[in-house]
Every structure is written in C-alpha cells, then in structure tokens.
Amino acid sequence: MxxxxxxxxxxAERSRAKAQKKQEKLKRLQDEAAKRKAERGDDPxxxxxxxxxxxxxxxx
Length: 60
Prior knowledge:
Residues 1-60 are annotated as: Disordered. This protein is 83% helix and 0% strand. It is mostly helical.
C-alpha cells in the first residue's frame, strides 16, 4: 500500500462532494423556475395581492 487509508477523510470528501452537487442542482432548478415565471409574466407579489382581493370580495 502506498499510504495508510484515511476512511473518515474519504467519507467526508464524498459527503462534501454530494452536498455541493445537491446545492448546484437546487440552484439550477430555482434559476429555471425563475426563468419560466419571468417568461409567463408571473409576479408572486401581485398573485398574493390578487388572491387576497378575491378572498375579501367573496366574503362580502
């Protein structure tokens, strides 16, 4: 053997790489969702305000 294996370090490196890959995927998905919303012209603030206005008119 060329070197003494360090299993804890290797496991930590695998976990770090997995977490980084997961974070990159999440960011990519969020960017794609934001792009789709921008193409549709959706604005979350206006949607929430519109829903609140509809709810208040339904009650009256």
